[in-house]
Design goal:
The chain is α+β, with helices and mostly antiparallel strands. The chain has one domain. About 55% of the residues lie in helices and about 10% in strands. The protein contains 8 helices and 4 strands. It is a multi-pass membrane protein.
Length: about 260
């Protein structure tokens, strides 16, 4: 019994020493476990940057019988894509065709999908930093601890699934945003249906960066799904510990 207590104390002491001593070891970055984590870190940056930093506008050319000169009205929108708050603006804030265009807005609120996608990508970015710090600074602690490797594996599976969910939701929202800011707005705006008012869709800001954000979302899902195997190899399920615990007691005699 005393021998078992002594062994437990020794293990706790060694664990405390490993946690308190940071030793930089870049070898994990040369292995798939660390290298893919770096790729995941970079891909998460592109994911939230290409979506969260977007700003654009859509333009409509308006003409009417009373004013022979054509006027361009614009509606600016961007992340988090609350289109129902994006009102139309006229040149020099004047009324066009006797209509106060500021009262009219784009249709739709896609902030939930966009914010979920960006917020999740930011959390993944932070987790990758923490994981890389653990890999290169506390390599022995990570590989000797069953709880850490198992926690890392479970998080990897969950993150893979959430990348699929968040990216799919954001891709659907992006399709609706393109429709709500494209040529369809001419049919949706009530003033454009008034007799004597002619509206013509002019242009909308290119959403190439938003398309890239969707691509990086699915790329992140692939990276995390592939990395799950390498994280699994670090767990006790793949490499069970064969260490045996001493039972304590008096050693058998060597002779008669």
């Amino acid at each position: 019994m005393a021998s078992n207590i002594y062994l437990v104390r020794q293990r706790i002491s060694r664990l405390g020493q490993r946690m308190s001593s940071f030793q930089l070891n870049l070898n994990p970055l040369k292995e798939p476990l660390g290298f893919i984590k770096v790729l995941e870190w970079i891909a998460s940056i592109f994911a939230f940057a290409t979506c969260g930093g977007f700003k654009g506008k859509t333009e409509i050319l308006v003409s009417c019988v009373k004013e022979p000169e054509n006027k361009t009205i614009t509606a600016a929108f961007g992340y988090p894509f609350r289109l129902n708050e994006a009102s139309f603006q006229t040149p020099q804030d004047v009324t066009v065709c006797g209509i106060d265009w500021k009262k009219y807005v784009l249709i739709g609120d896609y902030s939930s999908s966009a914010q979920f996608y960006v917020t999740f990508a930011v959390f993944v970015f932070l987790y990758c930093i923490a994981a890389l710090l653990l890999y290169v600074g506390y390599t022995n602690l990570y590989r000797d601890s069953r709880k850490l490797t198992m926690t890392d594996f479970v998080i990897t599976i969950v993150v893979t699934f959430l990348w699929l969910v968040s990216t799919s939701a954001w891709a659907k929202a992006l399709t609706d945003i393109k429709s709500a800011t494209g040529s369809n707005i001419v049919q949706e705006l009530k003033p454009c249906n008034i007799q004597g008012v002619v509206c013509q869709f002019v242009s909308v800001t290119s959403m190439g960066s938003l398309n890239v954000s969707v691509i990086f979302g699915f790329l992140n899902m692939i990276l995390w799904g592939g990395n799950a195997w390498f994280v699994y190899k670090e767990t006790s399920f793949h490499s069970p510990s064969n260490t045996s615990t001493s039972q304590g007691g008096i050693p058998p005699p060597t002779g008669i």
